[in-house]
């Protein structure tokens, strides 16, 4: 543990060391790991090493879980109004430091500063929602279920919960997890993405400044070993996961085998269905924004367009619009999209684009050999559009997770629905049309958890839940909204009898029935 002057929320990173080492947060203290293994956190626009993140040791992991376990009894008995007030303060502090958070996100993750602000803001909305926890977790009461007997149910916290995060939303996803969990009365162990852990550290500093007691939120780092330790630990009751299907299904299976509840949000292939009656300019703007924003590294990015009938004639205009986007470091004010997260990600994206060409798709716009002046070492991929894509192509079957838009064609609306429904993923799907009747059919028949009607990225605000389906989600209680509160609480049902019959009614061994 560092000297007292360093073990504070105001100064979590080691001073003096370059690059700084990302600390764990254990029992309210930011502590350097004793691990001998560290991973470089790399600025994807420059390849500079921003910081180093440890593979947290087994002992440190155990210490974090113990701290969370020890903090639970008093935190669960802290009035819900007090817990809400911590969130009320936290949302104020996140607003105060939104620029600092956004700068950290752009430096570690690469997205533009404006988009990084959106990343923070969409998480902030969950904190705001958690401020109403007293109402959200209300139980139920039925009076006089039998003579003189009332039954009521209350929602109680589970205990120690954990969150495992992906790289693409370094602030929003941690904020989907711990604010709901802790305001329900749980304590938490967070494992940020090893690629961009900085925002989680800043958010934890703010949570402590807001008054979150020591041990209620803890942070550990690492990759597979830390994740497996979370899955196996008998003190952890529930796991929130967001990331790829490989990791998500592994965690879902391993943690469920240990009796934990898991909510696992995973990969996607979100389709836009475009009808010829749609408003052309608005639709094309939406497709370009949702296809290439954040360099396509959003789980709700629109990565496939199904043009129905004559709307395929709009492809030319789509290409023109995509060409006008500026690819640059996210720190540059003119950037529309920044780099992808790593060299490996760029290689994978380029390979999938080439596989599409090899399989017979036509490359209408090629962003694979882009060079950004001043940032020649960055992992940039420019907007790329492939058309004549078929469902059997690898570029269609795989989630590309880059600035690549695939175009397919359907002769009819019914055929378009069939294409979308045959895809294994079910995160989101959007329809562009001016026909209410068609929109209603789409809403009813489309097999995706989040549906947009003339809305390209239909991510619900926190009073609803994030409702991916099919291969995009495992579990049955979604993130945030009512389902999120249910995920982080368990129901206890109490049946009480207060009768004014001092002598009782004698002994009866028959099963009690309500009469
Ligand atoms: P990832 O699965 O590689 O990593 C996510 C987390 O899992 C990280 O913390 C990582 O350390 C851990 N991890 C990685 N591989 C693991 C393994 N084999 N075993 C155990 N743990 C492992 O995901 P990523 O690349 O960081 O994020 C991108 C993915 O996340 C995309 O598939 C995207 O669609 C998905 N995503 C989904 C949503 C959603 O809400 N559905 C939101 C954001 C991102």
From TrEMBL:
Pfam families per record: Aldedh
GO MF: methylmalonate-semialdehyde dehydrogenase (acylating, NAD) activity
Q: Does the keyword NAD apply?
A: yes
The Aldehyde dehydrogenase domain, residue ranges: 30-494
GO cellular component entries:
mitochondrion
Look at the named UniProt entry and state the broad enzyme category this protein falls under: oxidoreductase
InterPro entries to which the protein is assigned, alphabetical: Ald_DH/histidinol_DH, Ald_DH_C, Ald_DH_CS_CYS, Ald_DH_N, Aldehyde_DH_dom, MeMal-semiAld_DH
For this UniProt record, the keywords arranged alphabetically read as follows: NAD, Oxidoreductase
* Catalytic activity, EC: 1.2.1.27
Which one GO biological process term can you cite for this protein?
Answer: thymine catabolic process
Q: Which NCBIfam families does the protein's record reference?
A: MMSDH (TIGR01722)
Q: Which family does it belong to?
A: Belongs to the aldehyde dehydrogenase family.
Q: What is this protein called?
A: methylmalonate-semialdehyde dehydrogenase (CoA acylating)
Question: Which species is listed as the source?
Answer: Punica granatum
Q: Which gene encodes it?
A: LOC116197478
């Amino acid at each position: 543990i560092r000297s007292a002057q360093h073990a504070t929320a105001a100064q979590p990173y080691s001073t003096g060391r370059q690059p700084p080492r990302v600390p764990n947060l254990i029992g309210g203290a930011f502590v350097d790991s004793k691990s001998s293994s560290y991973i470089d956190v790399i600025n994807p626009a420059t390849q500079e090493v921003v910081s180093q993140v440890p593979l947290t040791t087994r002992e440190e992991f155990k210490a974090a879980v113990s701290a969370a376990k020890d903090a639970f009894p008093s935190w669960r008995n802290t009035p819900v109004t007090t817990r809400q007030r911590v969130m009320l303060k936290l949302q104020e502090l996140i607003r105060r430091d939104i620029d600092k958070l956004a700068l950290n996100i752009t430096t570690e993750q690469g997205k533009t500063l404006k988009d990084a602000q959106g990343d923070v803001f969409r998480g902030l909305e969950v904190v705001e929602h958690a401020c109403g926890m007293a109402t959200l977790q209300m139980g139920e009461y039925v009076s006089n279920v039998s003579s003189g007997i009332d039954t009521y149910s209350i929602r109680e916290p589970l205990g120690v919960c954990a969150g495992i995060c992906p790289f693409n939303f370094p602030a929003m996803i941690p904020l989907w997890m711990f604010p709901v969990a802790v305001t329900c009365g749980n304590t938490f162990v967070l494992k940020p993405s090893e690629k961009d852990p900085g925002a989680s550290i800043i958010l934890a500093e703010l949570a402590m400044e807001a008054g979150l007691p020591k041990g209620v939120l803890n942070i550990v780092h690492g990759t597979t070993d830390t994740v497996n330790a979370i899955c196996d630990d008998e003190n952890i009751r529930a796991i929130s996961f967001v990331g790829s299907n490989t990791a998500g299904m592994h965690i879902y299976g391993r943690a469920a085998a240990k009796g934990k509840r898991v909510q696992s949000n995973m990969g996607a292939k979100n389709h836009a269905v475009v009808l010829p009656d749609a408003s052309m300019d608005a639709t094309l703007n939406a497709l370009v924004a949702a296809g290439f924003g954040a360099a396509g590294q959003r789980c709700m990015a629109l990565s496939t367009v199904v043009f129905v009938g004559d709307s395929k004639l709009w492809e030319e205009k789509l290409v023109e619009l995509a060409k006008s986007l500026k690819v640059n470091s996210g720190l540059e004010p003119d950037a529309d999209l920044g780099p992808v997260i790593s060299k490996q990600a760029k290689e994978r994206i380029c390979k999938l684009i080439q596989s599409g060409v090899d399989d017979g798709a036509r490359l209408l716009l090629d962003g694979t050999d882009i060079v950004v002046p001043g940032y020649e070492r960055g992992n940039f991929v420019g907007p790329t559009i492939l058309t004549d894509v078929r469902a059997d192509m690898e570029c269609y079957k795989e989630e590309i997770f880059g600035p690549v838009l695939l175009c397919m064609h359907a002769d009819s609306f019914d055929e378009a629905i069939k294409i979308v429904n045959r895809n294994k993923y079910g995160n989101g799907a959007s329809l562009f049309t001016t026909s209410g009747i068609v929109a209603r059919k789409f809403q009813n028949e489309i097999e995706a958890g989040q549906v947009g009607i003339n809305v390209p990225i239909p991510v619900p605000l926190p009073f609803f839940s994030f409702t991916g389906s099919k291969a995009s989600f495992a579990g049955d209680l979604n993130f945030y909204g009512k389902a999120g509160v249910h995920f982080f609480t368990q129901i206890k049902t109490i049946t009480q009898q207060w009768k004014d019959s001092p002598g009782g009614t004698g002994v009866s061994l028959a099963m009690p029935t309500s009469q």
